Amino acid sequence: MIEYLCKLYSLMEEEICMVEEEVLFVDEKPEDVHHDQCTTKTRERFQTLSTASTSPVWLRQGLASVVIGSPFSFGALISKIKEKLKFQTKMYKSDPCTYMSNRCHESLKVISTQDRLLPFINAQLEDSMQFLRQMREKIPKLIEGDQQLYQQLLEDTRSNTDIQNFYEPLNTRLESLKRDVAVYTVKEIRRSDFTTRELQWTEESIIGTGSFSTVYSGVLSRKEEPAVKVALKVYADLLTSDNVWHFIGEEQALRQLRHPSLVRFYGTNLQNVSEGTKVMIVLELCMCSLKSHIMSHPVNAPARQPDEVARRKVLVWAQQILDALRYVHEQGFVHQGLKLENVLLTQDETVKLTGIGVGKFETEAESSPRYLAPEVLEGRIYDSKAEMYSFGLLLWEMWYGRIAFGTAIISRTEHLNGLRKGIRPSHIEGTNRPWKIWQEVMEFCWSGERRDRLTARQSWEFWKQLQKERDSESLKVRPKPPPKPSVSKAKPKIAPKPVKKK
């Protein structure tokens, strides 16, 4: 600590020696201590102190006091060390707490005098005082500037239209510059997570096509790591200022969000070609979408399937979707494109959400208005509750194995008018009705009023309750096997032969 204070505050070594002498040799006369010898050997004594760092605190303190304060020869020093340590050991063992308390008080008495502390404190506070003086000089100027700005606002006679016409071009120009900087950052500064050689795929291995990208199946091969089958999402257009925010938003969500029910993100690959930069995102490879799995086997839907095992499978899928939504919303993200097409299924039939951070409600309003909440279609402010509306429709589709509102393309205006009238998907006659909790969660989620909808966490809690009910119900209705007939291993008794009378 002494060495640290010396470096931090540049304390004079002579002053340190004087403190040690006054505290540790209070029973000796001042003329017995030679300050010149103390000063010339201070550094060596600091090293001696450091070598005893593993000793008990009372031993280190006693050794330090003797080494720092002793003016005698080495032989006399050894003798004095033994005498001093013997005395201090006795005092320490008799009452350690009292001994250390007394030593601390003696040290504080020496260093807490005004002539020692005041100059040091003043020197340390000088920088802070200088900063405060500068702030004091600037405050009147800041007040004057605020007053001038306030007066200018009062005298500004421009209308809101004039102000908007003046600042909108500036805002547009700034937005354009931000996009250009983002493109330059991605192209020139960003590094790919993988090289092109580490990714193997062909143009024929297409597994899906969307508005902005095409997905291929491929293989990720890295040195000293096993090869992994992956999905390669290749942007349809080269990186430009028009799609750079799309890429940055998607990558940010993929890198930040980690959950068992979200598609795993491996990294990105940026390929510089002659025309520009091609963007590729490497993701977990899944078997298919939940939409294709359910719609291709509608007879297996819970509404048409009396088998409890098949129903419970759909129940687990819905619970996994809710768990993922709960996590995504708590992390501050909104999917903005929740539909069965963006829910994938792995080989072991585990649900994986994809497309988070990619879609925008505004874009979906033109392509898939059937899954959007009324406030989104009306252009009003929305939040995660709008996504829970979409989840309510997903529950209906998962139960009945049908597309909500039919397969016909619905115009945005007609669909919104129907929602305002309270039109929602209804029960299909001749099929099984949903479980009570399933029905309630579904209807609460697709409510026209945002405040009436459940959050993802609330729905998830209801789903756990439904899971418990189904578990207990399956135990009640489980048929008991008939008891096996007991087989006796004892030999059958032989009836005694009747005795013939003579």
TrEMBL record:
The keyword Nucleotide-binding applies. Residues 490-502 have a biased composition (Basic residues). The lineage of its organism: Eukaryota, Metazoa, Cnidaria, Anthozoa, Hexacorallia. GO terms for molecular function: ATP binding; protein kinase activity. The keyword Nucleotide-binding applies. This is Protein kinase domain-containing protein. ATP binds at K233. Pfam families: PK_Tyr_Ser-Thr. It comes from the Eukaryota. Residues 201-466 form the Protein kinase domain. PANTHER family: MITOGEN-ACTIVATED PROTEIN KINASE KINASE KINASE 7-RELATED, PROTEIN KINASE DOMAIN-CONTAINING PROTEIN. Residues 469-502 are annotated as: Disordered. Keywords: ATP-binding, Nucleotide-binding.
